[in-house]
Amino acid sequence: MKNRDQFTFYGGGHRGTETEFGFQAERFGIREVNYSFEGRQPARDKGLTILSPEELKKGDISMEIVSKRMKRDYSEVDKIRKVFQLIFHMVNSGLQVFTVGWIQPDDTVKGGTGWAVELGKLFNRPLSVFDQDRNQWFAWKDNSWVEDLPKIEHSTFVGTGTRNLTDAGKQAIKELFTRSFGA
């Protein structure tokens, strides 16, 4: 069994997937860090770390690059920029990335979760997505998604994803922790 006190989960405290990852981290005795910024009220605030405007800027990137990478346009640029900056800090902190959502035909992942996935690809992190439509975990290997049954293997990891977490997605997160750390 892994020494649980050597692990840290990084999230943003959003409702849905990140809240469930945080709940499971707490249940398994894993240290939890939830990044946020001034004026944002996360659904889960255990281990809350408020990033200053200067810290957030470290995660800044051209929205043109984001749009090209994600193959979509964003209308509320100022609002989404802070969220993308926050996601940068999460992925930059974790050596392994787990997300829950929907893999699209162009191999991106739906919504803001997709930016965490793209950063995971860019940072060459071990990357897993639980696709809620297919009820299956997938890993990004050799530039494509392959079915997988991941485990938490790095001492720092990210858990993020959709706010619209299904029962199957919730169960997948619970089983990920059980597979990784035992009952």
What does this structure look like?
The mean pLDDT is 91. The protein has an 8-stranded mixed β-sheet with strand order 3-2-1-8-4-5-6-7. It contains 6 helices and 8 strands. Helix 5 links the parallel strand 4 and strand 5 (127-131). It is α/β, with parallel strands linked by helices and 183 residues long.
Short description:
With 183 residues, the protein is an alpha/beta fold. It has helices at residues 17-27, 53-57, 63-70, 77-93, 113-122, 167-181; strands spanning 8-11, 31-37, 48-51, 96-101, 127-131, 136-141, 144-147, 156-161. The chain starts with 7 loop residues before the first strand and ends with a helix.
List keywords for this structure.
6 helices; 8-stranded mixed β-sheet; 183 residues; alpha/beta; single chain
Set down the secondary structure blueprint.
Elements: E1 8-11, H1 17-27, E2 31-37, E3 48-51, H2 53-57, H3 63-70, H4 77-93, E4 96-101, H5 113-122, E5 127-131, E6 136-141, E7 144-147, E8 156-161, H6 167-181
Helix pairs in contact: 1-6, 4-5
Shape: globular
Q: Compute the number of helices.
A: 6
List low-confidence stretches. Answer: none
Helix content: 25-40%
Strand content is 15-25%
Rg from alpha-carbon coordinates: 15 Å
N-to-C SSE string, H for helix and E for strand: EHEEHHHEHEEEEH
Q: What's the β-strand tally? A: 8
Q: Please, what is the average pLDDT?
A: 91
- Report the sheet with the most strands, covering strand number, pairing sense and barrel closure: 8 strands, mixed
